[in-house]
Amino acid sequence: MNGVWIFGDYRNYFQNRVTLQLIAKGRELAETLATEVTVVILGEEVHQYAMEYIAHGADVVMAAEHPDLKYYQLETYTTLIARWVEAFKPDIFLAGATSFGREFFPRLAKRLGTGLSADCVSLEVDPEKGFLLQTTPACGGELLAEVVTPHHRPQMATVHPGVFQEIPHDSTAVGRILYPEIEVQPEQRVKILRSQRQQVRRNNLEEAQVVIVGGLGLGSKEHFRLLFELAELLEGEVGATRPAVLAGWADEEMLLGQTGKAVKPRLLISIGTSGALQYTTAIHGAETIIAINRDPHAPIFKMADLGLVGDCTTILPLLLETVRRRIRRERMDD
Ligand SMILES: Cc1cc2nc3c(=O)[nH]c(=O)nc-3n(C[C@H](O)[C@H](O)[C@H](O)COP(=O)(O)OP(=O)(O)OC[C@H]3O[C@@H](n4cnc5c(N)ncnc54)[C@H](O)[C@@H]3O)c2cc1C
After folding, report:
1. For 282-300, how does the pLDDT look when each residue is reduced to its tens digit (9 = 90+)?
2. Is 295 in the pocket of ligand 1 (CB under 6 A)?
3. Which of 38, 45, 143, 307 could be disulfide-bonded to 301 (CB atoms 3.0-4.6 Å)?
4. Is the CB of 98 under 6 A from ligand 1?
């Protein structure tokens, strides 16, 4: 079969557009290589998504339906898709750099003995050799590296949501949906008992005029919670660094940085963050930055307009109290 393959991540379909964006990019690549775009998709009932992928530009959808595929299971999915890749030998295989793609694709690449470029910002075909040119940030985002995979197949890459534009839905589009025979042997090291969608607090970080960001220096979820109070008083939003998200203090959608959102508020208060490049890349658009860190040499102070050196768990409650008092006074003056 060869061709360009896209992994069909249909969870939360209406918000998660990355598969559709990859189909659009896949079309461009496939046209240059005179081949087809195939979306591979696993699940319990996936026909409706297969139709959607055709309507958004896929030539072929290869689908596996089975009750044991209802929930994403890393090992089962890897085994099944690796078998398909070995049988059909795609030239290129792309997935979204979502939490899902980041877990699944490295494992699949290792299983297939090929390379993988993570978080690509551009994908093109080398006009001479026909290799996939995979451009990805390197050295903490300072450089863009161009990666090629000359000796192994498929050429695999993950791409962030929002990098490419999806093709609008066309209900007249025609494609083929294939259901290859599959043998599902769930690998039982992890047994999923049930799945429940996490309640996520929607935020408006990209448009917020005030952003309060918490980092690992806050030390605990209890301290991190104080940021929400401060943000509410200042009519702002809360952002977080990657370690704060990994610690479970903040939702993924609050993540700022190379792998998260970028902000451009009038005021940004960065609390207990060291100022790593992968984070600061997202806050360059802020008009005024105030940083709180107990280490006077923390890199965040290099870009802050105002720096407070001290323990944020002491400063934050004082700051909250001061802001509350100020607001009360302003209300009384009115
Ligand atoms: C490919 C790649 C992509 C990445 N993408 C992102 C990204 O998108 N976003 C992101 O945020 N990170 C990202 N990272 C991680 C990034 O490199 C840093 O590790 C991260 O930003 C650091 O987060 P932090 O500042 O919260 O934690 P730390 O670097 O651990 O800093 C904590 C700071 O808190 C201070 N501190 C400690 N205790 C206190 C206290 N009581 N009071 C005051 N200050 C205190 C310390 O002095 C320190 O400076 C990425 C890394 C890689 C390799």
Report:
1. 999 999 999 999 999 999 9
2. yes
3. 307
4. no
pTM of the entire predicted model: 0.64
User: Shortest CA distance to 215 belongs to which of 314, 295, 293, 321?
Assistant: 293
Check pocket membership of 272 for ligand 1, CB cut-off 6 A.
yes
Mutation to probe ligand 1, out of 224, 271, 293 (largest number of atoms < 8 A from CB): 293
Q: Would you say the CB of residue 243 lies under 6 angstroms from ligand 1?
A: yes
Instruction: Determine whether 297 is exposed, middle or buried from the number of CB atoms within 10 Å of its CB (0-12, 13-18, 19+).
Output: exposed
d(CA 60, CA 202) in angstroms, rounded, equals 35
Going by their DSSP bridges, the two strands 122-125 and 132-138 should be labelled as antiparallel
Using alpha carbons only, how large is the chain's radius of gyration in Å? 23
278 ligand 1 Cβ < 6 A: yes
Where the chain has pLDDT below 50, the residues are none
| Protein residue whose Cα sits closest to atom 38 of ligand 1 | 217
* Distance of alpha carbon 298 from alpha carbon 294, whole angstroms: 8
E-strand spans in the chain? Answer: 4-7, 37-43, 60-65, 92-96, 116-120, 122-125, 132-138, 143-147, 155-159, 176-178, 210-214, 237-240, 267-271, 288-293, 306-309
